[in-house]
Amino acid sequence: MTFRSTIRTKCCMLLLFALFFAAAPRLFASDWGAVLDASRGTTVNFYGWGGDPNVNAWLDTFVAPRLKERYGIALNRVGMGIGEVLNKLLSEKAAGKTDGVIDVVWINGENFFAARRNDLLFGPFTQALPNFREFVDAAAGDVAFDFGFPTEGYESPYGKAQLVFFRDTERLKEAPGGHEELLEAAKKHPGTITYPAPPDFTGSAFVRTVVCDIVGREALASLPADKEALRKAVAPAMEFLVALKPYLWMRGESYPASSSQIKNMFADGEILLGMSYTPFLAPGRVAAGEFPESTESFVFENGTVGNTHFLAIPFNASNASGAMVVINEILTPEAQASKYDPAVWGDLPVLEYARLSSEERALFESVDTGKGAVPLDFMLRRRVPELPANFIPILDEIWRETVLK
Amino acid sequence: MKSALRAYLLLTPALLVLGALFLGGFAPSFLQSFGYFPAVGMTEPTLSFYREVFGGREFLPSLLFSLRIAFLSSAGAVVFGALLALLLLRTGRGEKIEGALAAIPVIVPHTVAVLLVLNLLARTGLLARLLFASGFISSPDGMPSLVFDRGGLGVIAVYLWKGIPFAAAVVYVVLRNMNTRLWESATVLGASRFQAFRYVVLPLLLPSLSSTFVLLFGFSFGAFEAPFLIGPTFPRALPVAAYSAYIHPDPTFRPYSMVMVVVITFIAMLLVYLYSFFLAGEERAS
């Protein structure tokens, strides 16, 4: 008993030691070695949205076995929406709980903003990760900022996403290049187009894409996060969404509650046009035989909103060193190339191409983005950076109040 | 007196657990509903969140929607459940395979029931396909909206499917244990079958029907998954609206959620009172 508890104390000391050095901006190879030692044989609890079976499968069948094999770490994936994760952390903070159950959390945007403001995250830690220092451009706009809010090393990039539309070309002949053509398409095919109701992540991003298409991002970005100011500024976009309503699925009286439902309804042929924040979702689903062969992806000519999604470590993570090993592993070219494959996930990589070796580049070049996909460079040229994080909940409320009645 | 004390003593452990769980969970919610939430720096108790929620444009429709869903589904379940129980008893099938089959929905989780209703009633569901194949409708658009509709038909269907067998099981047991001579005497004394049912059987059934109604009502009023999955986007059922406010990224919005939670709890307590009232009636009846 005494012997075991001494070991425990030693382990804890080692962990604290490792954490201390890991958190320091400069880290020597031997310190990373201490992190690896401290995390060997431990379990890392990975909390994140679990609504996409492909993402879940990638973590379970690609990331988890590699962690087990290379670092002796068991990855325990827990599917939980970010709203619930934040509430859990908040309650734990209020209760003074220091040995939290969550080690890694999938996060970005308004949730990162809220987490930082309430001091729910551990860090800064990104500079401690060897792969972050080697492959990631820490100064790049979509790494240093998350929905306009500085990341300051409290979250490490996981992947990049962009809102992409998809349609069944057999039944919906032309791709709507903007909001006006979307309305035309809806009039031509009433009841076959819809979007998830905000605050669903995808539905909320669709509304912002329409807002940027009509009002323009520039007109908004400088505004204060004030409901009345925003309501006035986005009024033309909300009017458009109201005008679109009668031609939508269920005449716009109800909307799907989640993006998974959009996927199912498109697969069932109940809707002819859908959208996803996973850019290569549609080609992946075509390859899997869920979506019709005639499915094609497209983006608006003025662009669609895009962002980076991140991984962070809660302030009270019991296994912060294990968490860092997991996050570091996700930044390897192998992992990033694996999830870039639409058949696996179709998530855009976050590594700097220029910093990769030719073998590492080949990993990405060998990925087939699939039939009917939007070419990556074309998509990135039509990428509208996300609006400031604290606008998001306000816009969602304005949508509820004006469009939904 | 002594035996009453003894009863309370024996109940103490169970009451402690129930009380601690209820108060421990409810007290923070109650405080937060008044804007007292020190963890995010809110320390000034106020009534403004109640005012804002009650004055908001969605609260009343949500409350009415939840009450309506709960009332229609529970009333339907009790009426059809009683009929099913009578049928099982009269055909003597209650103890056979039919009785067991009828009990299946009771153990199937609500989420699965939602899936079944969705597969059946959605515009691309089985019913729509049958109607299409038989020429009643010419396209999926011709199918009336039975799920995601503002009336909540799909949600009611889920609760009916779950509730009818539950009510039937309760009524069946009461009917079977009922003294059959009461019914016979009534008919011998010249009562018609309807009169015998109306004036002899029904009064004996009423307490258990009422308490079953209250139980089902309480559940469907406070449940989240069915209205979240196949309910309308507006008005949302009260628990769905509360959840939505709860997962708002800004924790200073938490009090809005808790106001709704307090309202749900208040109505649930009223139901508990009603339930105990009917339960007392049931004891008198037996």
Domain count of chain B, please report it.
Answer: 1
Structural shape of chain B: flat
Work out the strand percent of chain B: under 5%
Give the terminus-to-terminus CA distance of chain B. Answer: 24 Å
Largest sheet of chain B: none
User: What is CATH's topology name of chain B?
Assistant: MetI-like fold
Question: Distance between the terminal alpha carbons of chain A, to the nearest Å?
Answer: 65 Å
Count of DSSP strands of chain A = 11
The CATH class label of the largest domain in chain A is: Alpha Beta
Number of domains of chain A: 2
SSE order of chain B, one letter for each helix or strand? HHHHHHHHHHHH
What is the assigned CATH homologous superfamily of chain B?
MetI-like
Key traits:
heterodimer, A: 405 residues, alpha/beta, D-Maltodextrin-Binding Protein, domain 2, 2 domains, 3-stranded antiparallel beta sheet, 11 strands, globular, disordered N terminus, B: 286 residues, mainly alpha, MetI-like fold, 12 helices, 0% strand
Task: Write the SSE topology.
The complex is a heterodimer of chains A (405) and B (286).
Chain A: H1 2-23, H2 29-39, E1 43-48, H3 53-71, E2 74-79, H4 82-94, E3 104-107, H5 109-117, H6 130-135, H7 141-144, E4 145-146, E5 149-150, E6 156-162, E7 164-168, H8 179-188, H9 201-214, H10 217-221, H11 227-244, H12 259-267, E8 273-276, H13 281-287, E9 295-298, E10 304-312, H14 320-330, H15 333-340, H16 358-365, H17 376-381, E11 383-385, H18 392-402
Parallel strand pairs in A: 1-2, 1-3, 10-11
Antiparallel strand pairs in A: 3-10, 4-5, 6-10, 7-8, 7-9
Helix pairs in contact in A: 1-2, 2-14, 9-11, 11-18, 15-16
Chain B: H1 2-33, H2 48-55, H3 59-90, H4 97-107, H5 110-121, H6 126-133, H7 153-176, H8 180-188, H9 193-222, H10 225-230, H11 238-246, H12 254-285
Helix pairs in contact in B: 1-12, 2-12, 3-7, 3-9, 4-7, 5-7, 7-9, 8-9, 9-12, 11-12
